[in-house]
Amino acid sequence: MENYTMEGRTYRYYGQEAPLYPFGYGLSYTTFRYRDLVLSPPVLPLCANLSVSVVLENTGLRDSEEVVQLYLRWEQSSVPVPRWQLVAFRRVAVLAGREVKLFFQVLAEQRAVWAQDWRLEPGTFTLFAGGQQPGQKTRAPSEVLSARFSVTGTARPLRTC
Prior knowledge:
Blueprint: E1 32-40, E2 43-45, E3 50-58, E4 64-74, E5 85-94, E6 99-106, E7 113-114, E8 118-120, E9 123-130, E10 144-152, E11 156-157
Parallel strand pairs: 2-10
Antiparallel strand pairs: 1-3, 3-6, 4-5, 4-9, 7-8, 8-11, 9-10
């Protein structure tokens, strides 16, 4: 095998065609609502980690579990990157009518791109939080929030951080 490109071979690199049952698709016995997505800091240095918090509310009548998923999208990159990349997930049990506040860390190395070496690049990124992939056509009874953050500095190899 000589062609190692993932373009057209995995859901992360499909063009505009979405998979029939994307990662995270499933049924639930209740409904959830996401709110208050906070990224801290909204502008961070190249080698810094991003803190994320989001509130998950069970708006249904039954106790249930939700798989909260965080996806990262590069707005501009010097090399081809996935449309979005799963960077964190957590299964959370939430009682009916209750809410929980969740905290995550998105590490600097999760923003690295492969350009003959793992590199960190400055730029604008979008983080998605929800019970499914962003832009999912086959809807699950959940939603996806998004927020942008910026990374400052000069591009450099990940190993130098």
